[in-house]
Amino acid sequence: MGEIKGVIYDLDGTLIKTEKLHESAWLYAGKKFKVCISSEMLLNQKGLSGEAAAEMINIDKKLIKKFITAKTEYTIENANQITLFPDVAEVIFKLRKNNYKVWIFTSAPRDFVLKVMNNFQELKKAIGNNVVWREMYKE
Fold first, then answer.
1. Three-state DSSP class for 23?
2. Which residues pair with 121 in a beta bridge?
């Protein structure tokens, strides 16, 4: 195995605590579209894309896009509920000081990522512009 030159982090559930926010967002979208969201679904959706999670709960294919949009908008509007895991920025600063390349790659949408970075200036300062979000994947 070669020498480690960099570290890539996910964002949700790795650097920031978002579990409760995502659960609330699924419940919000479920209520809005009159879809029952079970506690089992909330447990099983962790780590899945919004599309995969929506398919898991058998949402009408015609509603999936609107359903996920409502869920996503809820997370962006309530991003102030998120907290950082302890010492995240400090660890990133130390890695960069020791010449490691550090990036965040996330399936979260741009608006959510930017709001998180604006809410956590220490994370923004530590990571700089080294963030790739969902809409950038094609680039």
1. helix
2. none
